[in-house]
Amino acid sequence: NRSNISHGAKVAGSIHPGNALGYGLMIFAQREKYHKLGGEGANFGNASEEIWNYSITEGFVAIILDFVVVMILGFYFDNILPNAGGMRKGIFYFLKSTYWKGYSTQKSSVHTESPSYDENFEPVSSELLAQEARQESVKIRKLRKEFKGGKVAVDSIDLDLYSGQIFALLG
Question: What is the DSSP letter of 64?
Fold first, then answer.
């Protein structure tokens, strides 16, 4: 018997879109059945009246809420699951201030001096420094690669490329 299920249980079950649609259509069909028997059919005037502890209005509102929840979940999973490029955001990406404020848009200035070297880099030989003096080398400063969606692959890298050397940037 459809009336054995309490109103609260039907409303709670309406969290699932199939239940909300099923309950709403069941009430709609019952209203139309009454209409064929000489009663009033489904219309805006009686949409909030309950039959079997549920109304058409409750079904309609539940379907709209279900739609909003599914859209939010879809957007969330679209961001945290790897896409075709293998990129994804962390599961709590929406809690970071950069998500709400956006990424900083600081302007970078052009630097003409060579970057400082430490023990992680080999020193530049006098031969290569001579290439720099003759402007036979390529200098790249503050290189940045950002993909659609805000994912930064390379952020502010300085490169010195010299003639006769092989360079590869893997990633």
Answer: H
Tell me: the pLDDT tens digits for 24-40? 888 888 888 877 766 77
The separation between the first and the last C-alpha atoms of the chain, rounded to the nearest angstrom, is 63
**Residues 24 and 50 sit within 8 Å (Cβ to Cβ):** no
Residue 80 amino acid letter:
I
Two tokens, residue 28? 């709609």
Q: Are 10 and 31 in contact (CB under 8 A)?
A: no
Counting Cβ atoms within 10 Å, is residue 50 exposed (0-12), middle (13-18) or buried (19+)? middle
Pair 158, 141: CB distance under 8 Å: yes
> Which tokens sit at 21?
């649609």
